[in-house]
Every structure is written in C-alpha cells, then in structure tokens.
Amino acid sequence: MNNMFIEQCWMDAWVNDVAGKDTLAVHKGYSTAEYWDNASVTYNTNKDEIKSRRTTRALTALREKGLLFEGMRVLDIGCGTGMMALALAQEGAWVTAMDFSAGMLDRFKSEIPKDLNNQITLVQEDWLQLDIRQKKWEKAFDLVVAFMSPAVANPKAFSKMIQCAAKGCAIRGWAARRQPQLFTDLWERIMNRPLDDKPQSILYKINLLFSMGLYPDVYFDVVEWDQIVSVEIEAENQISFFTKVTGKSAGDIRPVIHSYLQSRAENGQIEKKQKGLTATAVFLVDPLI
Description:
This protein is of the alpha/beta class. The chain has helices at 7-19, 23-29, 33-39, 47-52, 55-64, 83-90, 102-110, 132-135, 155-163, 181-191, 201-211, 231-246, 250-264; strands at residues 73-77, 94-99, 120-124, 141-147, 165-178, 217-230, 269-284. Strands 3-2-1-4-5-7-6 form a seven-stranded mixed beta sheet.
C-alpha cells in the first residue's frame, strides 16, 4: 500500500503495463508525422466529433483552478487542428501551439481568425525530441496542455511537460476506448492476433500526480461520434500506421488493407464508429501557492 505514494511505483507500472500489451505497438503506429498528416483531413468533420472535444467544459475547469486569465502564456503540446488553442486565444491567452504534423498545422492555420493571428504561434516540432532548455521553455508558460496527445505517452515526456509550466497543466486521454471494428479487423488480418490494446496511460498519469502531491481535479466524459472517410484516405491512414508497426513495406500491406476496405465500403466511403471514455486532469504545479 505504501508503494502507492511513491512516484517510481507509478512510473514503473505505466511503462510495464504498456510494454506487456499491444498498446506499445499502437503507440508506435501513431508516432509518425506521416500518419497524422494523412489523418488531418478527417478531423473535426461533424458536429458530434467537435462536441466530443468538450472545449467549454475544459475552459470552465481551467477557470475554476485559476488557470484561465487575460494575457496568460500557454503551450499546447500536440495541438492538432487547434480547437483548444483557439478557445484559449479567444479567452485572451498568448498560445504557442506545437505539433509535429505539417498537415495538422496547415488545418489549424487555415482556421485562425485574423483577429487572433498575433496571439497564436505555430511550431512544428517533435515533443519527444525537443530540448526545452535550448528552447528556454522551462517554467516559461503559465499553462501547459496536452489533450489526446501521443506526445506525452511516457513518463519522461510527461515530466518534461510539467517542467514547462509556471502555474499549472491540463491533460486529457482515453480512460477506456472501444476501437472501431475496422481497426480491430485489420489488426487481426495483418498482425495475425486479436488486438490487446489498453490505452489508459492517463490513469497512470493521474495516480503519478497524486503520488507527487499535485492533487489534480479529474473529470470523465463519454464521447461518441461516427466518422465518414473515403476509402483512399482511410487506406493511406492505415498503411502509414501498419508499416510503422510491422516494419513491412507499403507494397506488402496495401493489398490486404485495400481488399478489406473495399469489402466494407459503400459508395467509396467507410464509416467508423468512435466511442470511449476520456479523462481530463487539471492541476497546479505547486498546489500550495
């Protein structure tokens, strides 16, 4: 029981849990800019998906924690198409929004209103490789956020995030997820085994924070939406994913993926059902201030 209050206990549990399942391979598939470049055109394409981002609820949680105010400096790690960064800028924040995907940043840039241009700085960097000392980012931001970002998928990357915050942080990730049937079917065809992915690293992050005495405010949301994607776009997404996971060439994997997608397609399109439970944690880096 005493181990629950030791930081290393939760860091070890986090690393060992990921290593023991397909979760590590799934993280590897999501670790390339190419995957997210392909996926960028499919993001936030319907109102249910946009609603699932729960932007208003996140702003309320930040405000209640004293982490939302005019003129604040924010770092958004893995900003994607920029929904959270835009919402923070609209509240008067100066936002540095970073992602390693040029496709995601292009989507983001195209949606920035002219009156917010000066408040948002886009940075194309890989968080896992970035040197925060060289960037002079240590304690440089009032708030650091990482929502649904694979960039903070290990203890070292998470610790680096906290080091950049002068006041507090906010994180969001899957607490439970039902992978689309399309994905689990492809996994079994290509990997020759059922998928055993438990992507709940957010729960280790939360327990790690408690062991560090940072006491996050935590809330959960059920999210669900249908995603309609063309066969061509989905094929490129899955090819970039599985080439990274398997080490096989695109030429080896493409026929399997195309054959399966064509069997599922209607009028050249694929429907994917996304459903899961997300956890959001908001915390101060020094709760006694």
